[in-house]
Design brief:
InterPro entries: Na/ntran_symport (IPR000175), SNS_sf (IPR037272), YocR/YhdH-like (IPR047218). One of its GO terms (cellular component) is membrane. This protein has a single domain, classed as Hydantoin permease (Orthogonal Bundle). Helices cover 77% and strands 1% of the residues. Helix 5 packs across helix 17. The structure holds phenylalanine. Phenylalanine binds next to helix 1, helix 2, helix 10 and helix 14.
Length: 462
């Protein structure tokens, strides 16, 4: 039986698919919320430094490990460590983490889809009223939305890497970006928008607390889809002609560009709709910031293009966020799929049904944990408060395990697989790599200060 591994059809296809994974709810929702919460400009500054100095080398290493082994995390760690028992643990964690992240990501995707459905049916004003959010997250329509989301993800993943993932990303990513730029231009014309821009881009160094730094690193890892075996898995689908450092740079730039643009849309809008806001009030903003403010931004368009016009623009926007979420969700689920197919020898279809079924049940629990069922809403308590089932998954996997996975990968690549082998892999498709500054930086940073910084932040989170 010959089952040749699928490949992306082109370099740009790979970059778009990886960017499709990276650009998602984390950029459009998570980033603006985190920036608002963590002091605006100060957060932006630390975030950008983390992306280029810490995350980029990790991303490059993940892609290299994937291409070298042509395997997902479990297979990759196994192959490169020569079957070491210890090193199979980070491999397993690299498959479990995306599976659990898929659960909470699915919940958010379902919400986005629910918003889209409500806007299309003429309810933009209801969503913009500000009180609708709590009703929305406990409404039974969400179950129908969940079924639709699962069906779409299943459809793309059954079609596979080239015809599913790559094709979807090629159309959806550019459309999203154009739409975002247009919305930013509109928001910047609103009254008082400039105080939001100032808050967002001018760093106040006094705001750089440990929790800001923590938040920035977790957000950067999540946004770039690192520490989740995704880029290992996507790396396993590229050929030796692809220039990995360059591709990774493109992905990081796109991802950060989209996050920045989203910030430039949301924060000025928040300031414009609350002219008397004290930035300190933003420090406890949560995800509802976006779900409440985005509809307000769109409703404000009403004055210029009428209610229907505003609803159409809003619908297009949520459609694109929805697609960005889908390309991310697809990448998250591709990791365990690839594991079940490659290591456990299940067929792709069977692997998908197993995964979607189990993830679906957990997603159901997570959806119920916003007030619908007390057991899941008050699932447990720690860190001075009750935590829902959703919170627990989020805290464990987003805040803690992601950086841990990144930490282990750095050590693995530097001290087990060895830097010389990493260099050799990265020199494929990049004739000038050996001896370059980039090579020196990657080899040095991965083996020294990146794991140290991640480790401190990790301890700090605990
Ligand atoms: N990076 C995606 C986002 O920003 C989410 C994601 C996380 C995708 C982890 C894959 C893996 O929304």
């Amino acid at each position: 039986m010959s089952t040749e591994r699928e490949h992306f059809s082109s370099r740009i296809g790979f970059i778009l698919a990886a960017a499709g994974s990276a650009v998602g709810i984390g950029n459009l929702v998570g980033f603006p919320v985190n920036a608002a919460k963590n002091g605006g400009g100060a957060f932006l500054l630390v975030y950008a430094l983390f992306v280029f100095l810490i995350c980029l080398p990790v991303m490059i290493a993940e892609m290299a490990v994937g291409r070298k082994t042509a395997k997902e995390p479990v297979g990759a760690y196994n192959t490169l460590s020569g079957g070491s028992k210890w090193w199979s643990l980070p491999g397993l964690l690299g498959v479990l983490t995306p599976f659990m992240i898929a659960v909470f990501y699915m919940v958010l995707t379902v919400w986005i889809f629910g918003y889209l459905a409500l806007i299309v049916t003429g309810n933009l004003d209801y969503l913009a009223s500000g009180e609708s959010f709590s009703d929305f997250i406990t409404s039974y329509y969400l179950f129908a939305a969940m079924a639709v989301v699962a069906a779409i993800v299943n459809f793309i993943l059954v079609a596979g890497v080239k015809d599913g993932i790559e094709k979807a990303a090629k159309i959806l990513m550019p459309a999203l970006f154009i739409m975002l730029i247009l919305l930013v231009i509109f928001v910047l014309t609103l009254d008082n928008a400039m105080s939001g821009v100032k808050f967002f881009v001018i760093p106040e160094i006094s705001k750089l607390t440990p929790s800001v730094i923590n938040g920035a690193l977790a957000q950067a890892f999540f946004s770039l889809s690192l520490g989740m075996g995704i880029l290992i898995t996507y790396g396993s689908y590229i050929d030796n002609k692809t220039n990995i450092p360059n591709s990774a740079k493109m992905v990081a730039l796109t991802d950060t560009g989209v996050a920045f643009t989203a910030g430039l849309m949301v924060l000025p809008a928040v300031f414009s709709f609350n002219p008397n806001i004290n930035p300190a009030e933003l420090s406890d903003s949560g995800i509802s910031l976006i779900f409440v403010f985005l509809p307000k931004i769109f409703l404000a368009l009403q004055a210029t293009i009428g209610y229907i016009g505003a609803s159409i623009v809003a619908a297009i926007f949520f459609l694109l966020v929805f697609f960005a979420a889908i390309t991310s969700l697809v990448s998250i689920i591709e990791v365990p799929v690839s594991y079940l197919v490659g290591e456990r020898k299940h067929s792709r279809k069977k692997a998908l049904s197993i995964l979607l079924m189990t993830a679906g049940i957990l997603t159901l629990f997570a959806t119920l944990s916003f007030g619908m069922v007390q057991f899941f809403t008050e699932f447990t308590s720690y860190a001075g408060g009750t935590k829902s089932f959703f919170d627990v998954i989020y805290d464990i996997f987003y805040d803690t395990i992601l950086p841990l996975n990144g930490f282990l990968l750095c050590l693995f690549v530097s001290y087990r697989w060895k830097k010389a082998k990493l260099s050799e892999e990265l020199a494929k498709g990049n004739a000038n790599y050996k001896g370059s500054f980039i090579e020196k930086y990657i080899n040095f940073s991965l083996g020294t200060f990146i794991p140290v910084i991640i480790f401190f932040i990790f301890i700090n989170t605990l």
